[in-house]
Amino acid sequence: MNHDTKDVKILGIETSCDETAAAVVATGPRVLSSVVASQIALHKKYGGVVPEIASRAHLEKIYPVITQALADAKVTPHQIDAVAVANRPGLTIALIVGVTAAKTLAWAWSKPLIAINHLHAHMQSALLDAQTECRSPAAALIVSGGHTSLYDYESPLEPKLLGFTIDDAAGEAFDKVATILNLGYPGGPAIEQAAKNGNPRAVDFPRSLLDKHSLDFSFSGLKTAVLYHCRGQNMKGENRVAQMTPSEIADIAASFQAAVVDVLVKKVRRAVLKIGAKTVLVGGGVAANTALRQALTELCDKLNINLLIAAKRYCTDNAVMVASLAHYKYQARAFAQLDLEPASSGE
Ligand code: KG4
Ligand code: ZN
Q1: Domain-by-domain residue ranges, the chain?
Q2: Matching CATH topology for 5-123+317-331 and 133-310?
Q3: Burial per residue of 90-114, b for 16 or more beta-carbon CB atoms within 10 angstroms, e otherwise
Q4: If residue 37 lies in a helix (H) or strand (E), which one and from where to where?
Q5: Ligand 1 mean position to 331 CA, how many Å?
Q6: What CATH superfamily is the domain 133-310?
Q7: How far apart are CA 259 and CA 219, in angstroms?
């Protein structure tokens, strides 16, 4: 990755949603530190991320998290070569905290500033601790709370978007269905836990594949199907969830999870065939799901291609992936100006 002989050390900062994170990554990439302050406890009672609360929590945690990342890495600001920050996409009032911190440090330490796309950073998490080679061409699936996207991973800095969700993201569907089933927040791990005791074939939920060649996703119909299953067609009935046995709830969770996994796997297969991929990269919070990991492993074995899936600790938001991607930008001298702004969009 590094064309300089120098061992470059980059401080990465991540505040796009509900995790305040900082990490120091050296050339290699070698992870020198990774600190993540999760806000799950703050958002739990609302059943989802409340932007204002997220922003205030980032403001409170950003200084201690960065200080800890530097201390754990045993580096001083003087030894840092650049400051990188995820500035898009995400919640603007959350991103603004990380962006302001990164700009301030870059200015105060006289270091270059590097702007990172959060989704492109998720792809790097699949390459950390990789056990197999990333052979080109590679297809990348990013499945998170806010995004479900497929890319042709042509270059780490400019992956080509092949498809994205036209409504809910996969993680969002997990979170909403968990709310319908009263399983709590965040929904992904709760559904996965409940599904362990359920029958994935108990309910035949719809699998929306859109048209024959489409690489886009749609999960809102599936979410509505779960709602109708629990409340009756057109929501006319009472929500039966409170009267359901744990085994009925487990069956719904397992059947829903199977439907999401089926769609994701079928779309990955389409993308692989379309670009002739020899590798599949997978990242984002939903990539922590064991059923998805197993199904993708089976698919890639069958197609005889390499699967690089992020280690569970790097699936959800972290700053290691931000600093790792920043190394490519550092080598390309692709630096940002100090008027850098956060942006909610950006595929
Ligand atoms: O990547 P991430 O940390 O944040 C965003 O960039 O959105 O992803 C969070 C999402 C949430 O929707 C959460 O429910 C989902 O990832 N998630 C999971 C699992 N762990 C987290 N979904 C399914 N199974 C899991 N084990
Ligand atoms: Zn994310």
Answers
A1: 5-123+317-331, 133-310
A2: yes
A3: bbbbbbbbbbbbbbebbeeeebbbb
A4: strand 30-38
A5: 31
A6: ATPase, nucleotide binding domain (3.30.420.40)
A7: 10
Tens-binned pLDDT, residue by residue, of the chain (347 aa): 545 578 999 999 999 999 999 999 999 999 999 999 999 999 988 888 999 999 999 999 999 999 999 999 999 999 999 999 999 999 999 999 999 999 999 999 999 999 999 999 999 999 998 888 899 999 999 999 999 999 999 899 999 999 999 999 999 999 999 999 999 989 999 999 999 999 999 999 999 999 989 999 999 999 999 999 998 766 666 778 888 999 999 999 999 999 999 999 999 999 999 999 999 999 999 999 999 999 999 999 999 999 999 999 999 999 999 999 999 999 999 999 999 999 999 87
Sheet with 306-309: strands ordered across: 160-164, 148-152, 138-143, 279-283, 306-309
Best residue for ligand 1 mutational test, from 40, 49, 292, 316 (most atoms within 8 Å of Cβ) = 316
One-letter amino acid of 208: S
Give the environment of ion ligand 2: residues with CB less than 5 A. 144, 317
Q: Is 330 in the pocket of ligand 1 (CB under 6 A)?
A: no
Q: Judge residue 209's burial from the number of C-beta atoms within 10 Å of its C-beta, 0-12 exposed, 13-18 middle, 19 or more buried.
A: middle
113/187 Cα distance (integer angstroms) = 35
Q: Which CATH superfamily is domain 5-123+317-331 in?
A: ATPase, nucleotide binding domain (3.30.420.40)
Question: What residue type is 127 in one-letter code?
Answer: L
The whole-model pTM stands at 0.94
CB 113 less than 6 A from any atom of ligand 1: no
Tokens 């709590």: give the residue: 184
Give Cβ neighbours of residue 278 (< 8 Å, ≥ 6 apart).
Answer: 135, 136, 137, 138, 305, 306
Which atom of ligand 1 is found nearest the CA of 186? Answer: 14
Q: Ligand 1 mean position to 231 CA, how many Å?
A: 26
Residue 15 in contact with ligand 1 by CB distance below 6 A: no
Residue 172 CA: nearest ligand 1 atom is 12
